[in-house]
Write a structure and sequence with these properties.
- By secondary structure, the protein is α/β, with parallel strands linked by helices.
- It has nine helices and ten strands.
- Strands 6-7-8-3-9-10 form a six-stranded mixed β-sheet, sandwiched between helices.
- Bound molecules: adenosine-5'-triphosphate.
- Belongs to the ABC transporter superfamily.
- GO terms for molecular function: ATP binding; ATP hydrolysis activity.
- Keywords: ATP-binding, Nucleotide-binding, Transport.
Length: 242
């Protein structure tokens, strides 16, 4: 479904992503892991085109997407979350989700009322995720983990086929971690392909069908979680602080 070939992103002399190739298979959960500074978020940014790659190719469902604009990539079925939630504090969760809906986004400050069809869609998504309780909470009152849940809901407004989750468990309280794991599994079981960057190894080992390990901008291992966990190059990259 998603194929990344020889992707490079250089910042001056820094080779943040340096010839990275991997595939996220349709219907599976693929994790992109690696020590701090390995290039994971930069790779995500290049795939979702929030950043232009220096070179390399990104293919989605047989079509090349690395030259497209972010909204065109979203329209092709790829949506992503960010490490830091884009939650707008002066809006409710429902308003945030409708407002963040790509392409047909409602601009709350300019229009008096949210479009009813978008509201119904957002409410349906909140219900599907089992978080309708948050709909009318102010963005300002959300915990870090609740913001992550809201990000999941916003992600689904564009009817994606593949979702890229950037540290969905980062900074999340342990009581919400299980809920987040459950949501990711549920989205995958509903047919979504998932590519996930995460430092929480428990989450990675429990959820992923396949793990791609990056270090210093390159892929150093790629395989099932139980195999990657034992890989000497992976242990070295983590323990050696590569
Ligand atoms: P973490 O797990 O800590 O989030 P990461 O694997 O996501 O790390 P990146 O954030 O992609 O790693 O960073 C890879 C390298 O690129 C790092 O050395 C980082 O300092 C560098 N880098 C990232 N963005 C920029 C930028 N805009 N300008 C210069 N260097 C950058």
């Amino acid at each position: 479904m998603l194929t990344v070939t020889n992707l490079c992103k250089h910042f001056g002399g820094i080779r943040a992503v340096d010839g990275c190739s991997f595939t996220a298979e349709a219907g599976k959960i693929t994790a992109l892991i690696g020590p701090n500074g390995a290039g994971k978020t930069t790779a995500f940014n290049c795939i979702s085109r929030t950043m232009a790659p220096t070179s390399g190719e990104v293919w989605l469902d047989g079509g090349r997407i690395d030259h497209l604009r972010p909204h065109e990539i979203t329209a092709k079925g790829l949506s992503r979350t960010f490490q830091i939630s884009r939650n707008l504090a002066d809006m409710t969760v429902l308003e945030n989700i409708v407002c963040q809906a790509p392409i047909r986004g409602w601009r709350g400050l300019m229009k008096p009322a949210m479009p009813p069809e978008e509201v119904a869609k957002a409410e349906g998504i909140l219900e599907f995720l089992g978080i309708s309780r948050l709909a009318h909470e102010d963005g300002a009152n959300l915990s870090y983990g609740q913001k992550k849940l809201m990000d999941f809901a916003a992600l689904l407004m564009s009817d994606p086929k593949i979702i890229l989750l950037d540290e969905p468990a980062g900074g999340v309280n342990p009581s919400l971690l299980e809920e987040i794991i459950g949501h990711i599994r549920k989205l995958n079981e509903a047919g979504l392909t998932v590519l996930i960057v995460e430092h929480n190894m428990d989450l990675i080992m429990r959820l992923s069908h396949r793990v791609v390990v990056m270090a210093q901008g390159q892929v150093i291992a790629d395989g099932p979680p139980e195999m990657v966990r034992e890989d000497p190059a992976v242990l070295d990259a983590y323990l050696g602080g590569a």
